[in-house]
């Protein structure tokens, strides 16, 4: 029983030690790759959407389905003032 507890504690200490050594390197490498990918995506986006100055483009035009029927809406009765 004592050996088991000793081995578990030893394994925990070794794993913790190597984690403290390796995690900064792994995280830094991951962050650098993410930065490079973001920069590549940005450059690709800028190339794709390059426009001349002053040019306006509309990407989305909403559909026009707003037709009012005769039986819809409010009718306002009014009197002509003379």
What is the gist of this entry?
With 82 residues, the chain is an all-alpha fold. It has one helix and no strands.
Which characteristics define this entry?
57% helix; 0% strand; elongated; mainly alpha; 1 helix; 82 residues
Strand content: under 5%
For the biggest sheet, the summary is: none
> How far apart, in Å, are the first and last alpha carbons?
108 Å
Structural class assignment: mainly alpha
Strand runs, count:
0
Total number of helices: 1
Question: Ranges with pLDDT <50 over ≥5 residues?
Answer: none
Radius of gyration: 34 Å
Task: Determine the mean pLDDT.
Answer: 84
Break the fold down into its secondary structure elements and pairings.
Elements: H1 2-48
């Amino acid at each position: 029983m004592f050996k088991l507890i000793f081995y578990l504690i030893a394994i925990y200490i070794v794993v913790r030690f190597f984690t403290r050594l390796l995690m900064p390197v792994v995280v830094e490498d991951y962050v650098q790759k993410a930065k490079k990918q973001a920069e590549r995506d940005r450059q690709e986006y800028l190339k794709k959407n390059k426009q001349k100055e002053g040019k306006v483009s509309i990407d989305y035009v909403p559909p026009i389905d707003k037709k009012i029927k005769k039986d819809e809406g409010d009718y306002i009765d009014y009197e002509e003032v003379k």
